[in-house]
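hey can u check if this looks right to u? its 360 residues, i copy pasted from the old doc so theres a chance i mangled smth
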Amino acid sequence: MRIGIMFGGKSTESEVSIKSARSVFNAIDRKKYEVSLILIDKKGQWHLNEDSKSFPDKVGTGHDLSDKVFKNIAVVPGKNKKQIIYISDSLPVKQIDVIFPILHGAFGEDGTVQGLLKLINIPFVGAGVLGSAVGMDKDAMKRLLRDAGIPIAKFIVFENQSNANFNEVSKLLGTPVFVKPANAGSSVGINKASNKKQFDEAVKDAFKYDTKIIIEENIEGREIECSVLGNENPAASIPGEIVPQQEFYSYKAKYLDKKGAVLKIPADLPTNIVKEVQRIAIKTYKLLCCEGMARVDCFLVNNKKILVNEINTIPGFTSISMYPKLWEASGLSYSKLIDKLIQLALERFKKENKLQTSYF
């Protein structure tokens, strides 16, 4: 079976995507799978390394490419054997059985690529169009969670920078507050603000990355994460805890500062709280129409009240990332986790392909 690992992308998280892809490439069982690497560059162009024996060292910040390693490709919608072709001569690439998209952030985690993969009729790992889009948009996500009775922090949304007034926001949410782009991940564009100057700067920064921002109340609590796996009947891993060593779990703390945070796996929690975190994680996952995989992030307040912070439908996938580490601690190795995700993608594809596309 040939697996296409898709990575890179146009988002601010493309460098994280490359790290995740390298880890999946190194962990996948080569006795079961042949691997093709599909790199989407910063311009949105697609490139293929058809028979990858190793992950190219040259693929790094800026997506440096060598024509000898990657060739430009294009996709052809429809149910045919020429779903992906080389631009140079229009010849089809070797058939790819499943695509594993590891595209964190916009243009990859938000349903755009998932919709395209549906059009070219190739199974893919992870949530579909709706689950991806809802999971990416923090505004839509939180409104769905709130309306379903799942506890969350109070929040306000702005689509115009001039409407974000510190005095009005602080009356509703208190201080400090967290200012975030509505559609971004990896803590990109997220800032904590305690006064008007910090607030105005945070709003300006958030609007660099999205046309809509979300402002949330500060929650004093423990940061608990839970990995979820499955389609119709998902399962939850044991929870883990993130203990930031900085003011909050920023991009720097996640990826640049080795001492930015301590990951506790498993989290030191009583059995009843573990079960409740798992229950809420699965409920959140199903409510937001997720499939395949996702990581649900929560706050534990006063060691008893659980608030859902967000869901990540393509969580970090490096060898030290929370999603695979939590499953490893739950008894499912990194390699077996990849197997399971591929199996789930094929099961969904088979089920969807049984649906009629004609009325008459």
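Residues 334-352 form the longest helix (19 residues).
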